[in-house]
Structures
1.
Amino acid sequence: MKVSITVNGKLYVRDIEPRMLLVNFIREELGLTGTNVGCDTSQCGACTVHMDGRAIKSCTCFAVQADGRQVTTIEGMASGDTLHPMQEAFWEKHGLQCGFCTPGMIMATTAYLKDHPNPTEAEIRHALDGNFCRCTGYQNIVAAVKTAAEKVGA
Amino acid sequence: MCPASFDYHRPASVAEAVQLLSRPGAKALAGGHSLIPAMNLRVAQPGELVDIGRLDVLRGIRVDGNRLIIGALSTHAQIAASPEVQKHCAALATACSTVGDPAVRNWGTIGGNLAHADPASDPPTVVLACDAVIHTQGENGQRAIKAADFFVDVFTVDLQPGELITSIEIPSQSHRRMAYVKLPHPASRYAVVGVCVSMHTSGGVCDQIAIAVGGATAKATRATGAQSALLGSLLEAEALEAAAIAISADIGDQAVSDIYANATYRRAMAGVLLKRAVKAL
Ligand SMILES: Cc1cc2nc3c(=O)[nH]c(=O)nc-3n(C[C@H](O)[C@H](O)[C@H](O)COP(=O)(O)OP(=O)(O)OC[C@H]3O[C@@H](n4cnc5c(N)ncnc54)[C@H](O)[C@@H]3O)c2cc1C
Ligand code: FES
Ligand code: FES
């Protein structure tokens, strides 16, 4: 089936099988491998991207469902050499170790901050319910989100 | 992971969707947050998927007289944030705000949730406590099904092949106080046990009450013994204790055991959650 999907501002028209998951479209068709697959079972959030501005687990969405929609992946967050404030905050606060969960963490938390610009620590932890990190113990991730919220709010 | 192949359809109307769904092996796709995980594991292998996700007539939340009407495609996030739901069925807003995680709430729909009827789901418990009506459209026209008749068994509801849920109608609970309290699974957030209470009191005496429990049994269940224990009481400690014992008995040998919790634990937790729910009113 022919689909037209805008990813990071660029329109891609492709002929794909309906069973292709959005995450495979992004990684294999477009070669954008920043979006990771952790669990394949909708649990870990490593594959989180934005679809029409809202966070979605791209392993739990067929690419045909994204037809005509706007998708943003981690590759679309920085403008040129200027990192997104959330990326900068993860760097500053050491919000990662191996980095595998990080693209999903950044996509989930940037979508969350749009609706909740001033979250408490407890709210940030609740918002991260769907994103698992096997390295950091979350402490520095929460600190990074708090810092990013302050930066954006400032 | 890769689901088995299927033909994909994107109907432009409910009538067209119903027609496509009447074919053998066809299945509706709404938010995909129960169906796609099952297809990824190849537990489900529908030959045709009918994507109803763009049928805007199935969206929207409105109040009609003293009834709250929720379109089947309303997402958990939309329901949780809706002032109409918060006013007329506060416990449904609470239940939907505790479903899974933000991404699941952004895309999972109430229609898909009720049709899927996972025993560990949250919304069915509230829908049952409120005596809601499920509106459907199928090849043979429309039906209005009482929640008490709709849920049949594990993953089994009273829907004919090809029949779609169009909306959920809930009698306004705004004159009552409501609570939904759950024990979430630590990873998935599904309800290990969930309890919904909708209650009216006058002069401190409980004169109307509905209690439903989910997660603990194959399908959401009304706790009639616990309702009787609280009806006419002042909600004093003894009445709450009696209701907690009664709700365990209401579930009785219907309580399920799985790798996460055994039946005895689920019965005990239903009592604990009922007391918490009444205190939260
Ligand atoms: C990680 C994760 C955690 C979750 N945690 C929870 C939780 O804590 N609590 C909870 O309650 N749920 C939870 N869920 C399930 C979630 O609520 C699902 O979104 C919901 O059960 C299905 O809705 P959907 O729109 O995604 O349906 P789909 O997956 O698209 O469809 C599900 C089934 O319903 C059918 N269907 C869909 N719409 C209709 C309709 N209008 N009429 C008739 N049939 C229809 C489909 O054919 C399919 O059989 C979780 C899911 C995930 C992935
Ligand atoms: S890979 Fe999508 S949630 Fe884990
Ligand atoms: S940094 Fe390794 S999984 Fe999160």
2.
Amino acid sequence: MRIIAFASGKGGVGKTTIVANLGIALARQGKKVLMVDTDLAMANLSLILGMETSPITLNDVLKGDAGVWDVVYDGPEKVSIMPASLGLQDTQRLDLTKLPGIIKQVAPKYDFVLLDCPAGIGEDTLAAMASSTEVFLVVNPHSLSIADALKTKIAAQRINAKPVGLIINMYAGLKGEIPERDIISMLELPLYGVVPYDEEVRKTFYYKKIQPVILRNPDAEASKAVYVVAGKILGIEIDIKKQGGGFFAWLKRLFSR
Amino acid sequence: MGLFSKLAFKLLGIDDTELPAEQIGYIKDISKEYSVPEILKNTFGEFVDSLLHKHLIEGVVVFKENSLIYSSSPDILELANKLYEMFSSFKRENKVLYFNVGSWVSMFEKDEFVYMIKSDTRLCEFELNAVAKDIAVHGKNIFLEEYRKIMSFVKV
Ligand SMILES: Nc1ncnc2c1ncn2[C@@H]1O[C@H](COP(=O)(O)OP(=O)(O)OP(=O)(O)O)[C@@H](O)[C@H]1O
Ligand SMILES: [Mg+2]
């Protein structure tokens, strides 16, 4: 059982996108996966996964108003989701010190628990990292993102959490982007994959039915890159060609839009 | 890039072919200034230094069963004793008591020990727990040795 927190410091680098797609990639490899939205103030993991609003959430568990298993929902591809509240009112009175205990309680039922952290290194991010067995940093190839990731790594080490890997997201091959090897040497962590900037990712929200890119278009460059990350996490090589599902799967996707 | 913008860049002296050196320097500064040291265990002094440095704290005092068992430095003992009394009368299960005395002083009980941690900023429970854990995991023997030294000194 691995509990992985995905943190970045800087906002909007793609943590939630990576968690949602990676969770599905791992589930497709036969792993039991739970994704937890630990971004309690700005929750959106369940939205990206195309789920309906959940009546009770992790926020209610932290307030002591609901049980842990009451807030585990079924998501796409047999993944489980523990959403946070989408409302504005629900971030008050939250006892974050309960989070590690909550995660510990559900984790044994899964192979992977993926924690989608908020931006910043506030108490909420520390709570998620303290609940994890390992921390992955998600960065964009820009100095601001790398500086924030470094601060996040330091904050993690200070509370004895374990930063173990790095995912570069939104790599566009533009001038001014910091090269892969420099990012690795600045953050001193092994690289688990480079997910390119891909318009297909943004199409998650284009259609009536919201779907992460890995489901809508498994052949997209970003989807393939996520499979590479999943493979590296599992220590195996995933046959990316197989994940697309061929012509009929493509046809079906086309008409299910 | 078009010919015109190339010309403009040249005229304005903008060089966009290099990575922004200052920005990379800034990242290097962060890693130098804030890097997290290993907790050292060779001597008491080394241990305390690395502990305070790792957690960015000014001092720590530990009590057990109403007696002080270790302190990172002698000059916070008076404050510690005063606040310990207050803590004992306010104490709640699993709760941290914060005092603002210019610096922040946090007191909490964990596994039969009471920790007092002095820091510049107000630390949250995850940060405080990490200090307590580092002391419990790495510091016990070192503190005990130091404690014995003090006790033998007292006897003389
Ligand atoms: N590889 C990518 N290519 C193109 N767009 C992307 C990529 N990854 C993420 N995005 C887009 O970037 C935006 C921010 O992504 P996301 O919400 O996942 O970031 P985040 O780090 O979770 O943000 P926050 O810090 O606010 O939680 C979204 O619109 C998403 O669709
Ligand atoms: Mg997010």
